[in-house]
Design goal:
This protein has four helices and three strands. By secondary structure, the chain is α+β, with helices and mostly antiparallel strands. Strands 1-2-3 form a three-stranded antiparallel sheet, with no helix packed on it.
């Protein structure tokens, strides 16, 4: 089974295809079945996004003691990235980049600042757009 995903505006276009073996007298054939699926993107209301960001910031683990094997750190960073990406794709890229380099102790402070910069910009922007 294979899937192709293409995004456009507020919709996600997904084409699913699978192969099916057909047996018939004297041989065998393969049939490819493809079905397009169209679904709306999951749009989050600004006030819900703001509430979830506030909740996330209240649960912030100590990133000074960051460990790439810590479930708490990984979960928090993943949730933060998911929320920031719903607000702004470029800020989400910055958030992800800073998260990726948290394990380097020489740049950890700078990366923590970038993570919270993206989160606080998001919080302020959502507040003013409401």
């Amino acid at each position: 089974m294979s899937d192709r995903l293409r995004q456009s505006n507020n919709a996600i276009n997904l084409t699913c295809s699978t192969t099916k073996k057909l047996k018939f007298f004297g041989g065998e054939a393969t049939q490819v079945i493809a079905a397009p699926v169209r679904a709306q993107k999951n749009i989050m209301e600004p006030h819900i996004l703001l509430a979830q960001l506030r909740s996330l910031l209240e649960r912030e683990p100590d990133l000074e003691q960051y460990s790439p094997t810590s479930k708490d750190h990984m979960t928090w960073l993943a949730q933060g990235h998911a929320l920031v990406s719903r607000w702004n794709t470029l800020e989400a890229i910055s958030f992800q980049s800073a998260s990726d380099f948290l394990s380097m102790s020489s740049t950890r402070q700078m990366n923590i600042g970038k993570i919270f910069g993206a989160s606080s910009k998001n919080k302020n922007q959502v507040k003013t757009n409401r």
